[in-house]
């Protein structure tokens, strides 16, 4: 992976890549029901794509209230700092928009990853789509 970069994506123009990644990670790998994966929030979110050259390998979205979600990286690229690059871009965009408080619901196994990025756990464990999660918050500036 010699050309990792993250850019803001266009929900319409980049829809095929965004859907391919989220369907692969959440629906196929993690058995999230499609009706829970796709929601009305996508139309209003700022979407991000991580790319290796021209090939989309990860995605995330930022909602207008500072919620970050749908952070996903295709299996072959995990452990290569793609998630970190995605989250760094999402946090920077949130801060640029004046969203100094970022929130997310993390799968429990991923909580240490988000803690390294400055997020703190603010809830007890709960199930979302049958997967254990915790709510996390990051306060900046």
UniProtKB/TrEMBL annotation:
Name the enzyme group at the top EC level: transferase
Annotated ranges, domain N-acetyltransferase: 4-141
Q: Read off the InterPro entries from this record.
A: Acyl_CoA_acyltransferase (IPR016181), GNAT_dom (IPR000182), GNPNAT1-like (IPR039143)
| Database matches in CDD domains | NAT_SF (cd04301)
**Keyword field:** Acyltransferase, Transferase
Q: Which Pfam families match?
A: Acetyltransf_10 (PF13673)
> E.C. number, please?
2.3.1.-
Q: Which GO terms describe its molecular function?
A: glucosamine 6-phosphate N-acetyltransferase activity
Xref: PANTHER family: GLUCOSAMINE 6-PHOSPHATE N-ACETYLTRANSFERASE
* This protein's name: Acetyltransferase
């Amino acid at each position: 992976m010699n050309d990792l970069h993250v850019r803001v994506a266009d929900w319409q123009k980049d829809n095929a890549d965004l859907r391919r990644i989220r369907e692969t990670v959440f629906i196929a790998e993690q058995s999230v029901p499609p009706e829970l994966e796709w929601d009305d929030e996508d139309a209003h979110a700022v979407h991000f794509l991580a790319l290796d050259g021209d090939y989309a390998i990860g995605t995330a979205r930022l909602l207008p209230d500072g919620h970050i979600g749908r952070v996903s990286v295709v299996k072959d690229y995990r452990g290569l700092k793609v998630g970190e690059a995605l989250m760094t871009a999402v946090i920077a965009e949130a801060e640029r928009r004046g969203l100094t408080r970022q929130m997310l619901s993390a799968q429990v196994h991923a909580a240490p990853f988000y803690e390294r990025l400055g997020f703190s756990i603010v809830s007890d464990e709960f199930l979302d789509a049958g997967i254990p999660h915790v709510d996390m918050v990051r306060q900046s500036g």
